[in-house]
Amino acid sequence: MKYTFTPKALKNKDIATVTLATTASDVTVRTSDGRTVIELGVGKREEMTRRKLVNVIRKIVSLAKAANKKKVALDFFDLVFPHLHMTPTELGEMLSTNLEMANFEFVKYKSKPKEGWSTLAEVVVLGKLGSDVEKAVRKGKMIGEEVNKTRALANTPGGAMTPAILAQSAAEAAEGLPITTTVLGVREMEELGMGAVLGVGRGSDEEPKFIVMEYFGGMPDEKPVVLVGKGVTFDTGGLNLKSDTNMYEMHMDMSGGAAVIHALSLAAKLKLQKNVVALVPAVENMPSGSSYHPGDVLQGMSGKTVEVLNTDAEGRVILSDALCYAQKYKPRLVVDVATLTGAIHVALGAHASGLFTKDEELEGYFRKLGEESGDYLWPMPLWDEYESEIRGTFGDWANTGKSRYGGAINAALFLYQFTKDEKGKEAYPWVHLDIASRMTSADGEYLAKGAAGTPVRLLIKLLERF
């Protein structure tokens, strides 16, 4: 989408003018000279919140589409609410990021209509803005575009998104950027002892891959931030087969992997002076004669054994090898992102991801980043008392709990065991984001159906500031 800047109002029949009104409803009117004016009802201005403002911005796109307008003009200062304490650059970035997200539709497999797609082509931003605000708008556009690339990747059907294709997509995302992409195959993973990834992947004709992306934009001696993303390109549940009502969206079970791939790509495009690594274990979880079984015991890279009680709890199993591999970088922080449990969706609904960490300072920091970015988080307990649920009978750790309760907590505590070194001490600061509740867009947030692109916006703020 194109952004242009002008200090004066326009009188152009092809451009719809957007204004904010204190009414409760939206009105689109045509003036006597043929222009279109969209009055966006936001209610009392003093009741505006940052969260509401995100949806106000996104609604601009849907109202423009309803009015069959490809171009809109809006007064930047109409969006300024002093009580929100947002700087003009913050607002500029929020504006274009959310316009881009609202303008996205996944149409790759649709026939193009004769009149073309109903997407917005241009936004004219009115007002005397400094170069720093214009720069922020352009930056927000880049962020929104990368979120949308994440959504497109996650929306790709499972038949067209295998571990090998995901690895190729990572290489394409890094093309032309100072990023080194390495893809480990079965032989390399065998040499590393990645029995967890290999165990889950053996049921599929598509071989598993382990994707490593490295961006070293900081000082040579700076310890990196490592982002780990779950890359299950399709999840049938394995021999513990999912029901048909839950399976059709499971091509999006690699949403965490897509997010860390594009967060790292975005960091390079923004030329952040930071060192960042992305790790994505990529598998298909399929039922076949070679599938891993309930009751199997897998030994991963850490040397610890995993007792498989349910083959549909595969994401945490493959992530265990990735969290162990992360130790080689001596990272200053590891963040894993995964559509890990339906339990987090039950607990939080569709508007927040689950936040797990032993570090209270990091918990508060991530919650703040969530509010600023729009990738909202809510903290969940990661208490030692829950560990008895996942202690194995025939292996060190079981991949599910002994009861149906606390599933998201049990999964997080399982992952925690693989963030420790050989002596049983925490090898690095660690945060786990269970984004299963935010895998797809929710009603009322003015985004197209399908993948939501969570949490690319949060991760880029983290990489900028941490």
UniProtKB/TrEMBL annotation:
Keywords: Aminopeptidase, Cytoplasm, Hydrolase, Manganese, Metal-binding, Protease. It holds the Pfam family Peptidase_M17. GO terms for cellular component: cytoplasm. It is found in: Cytoplasm. The lineage of its organism: Bacteria, Candidatus Lloydiibacteriota. This is Probable cytosol aminopeptidase. It comes from Candidatus Lloydbacteria bacterium RIFCSPHIGHO2_02_FULL_54_17. Presumably involved in the processing and regular turnover of intracellular proteins. Catalyzes the removal of unsubstituted N-terminal amino acids from various peptides. It catalyses: Release of an N-terminal amino acid, Xaa-|-Yaa-, in which Xaa is preferably Leu, but may be other amino acids including Pro although not Arg or Lys, and Yaa may be Pro. Amino acid amides and methyl esters are also readily hydrolyzed, but rates on arylamides are exceedingly low; Release of an N-terminal amino acid, preferentially leucine, but not glutamic or aspartic acids.
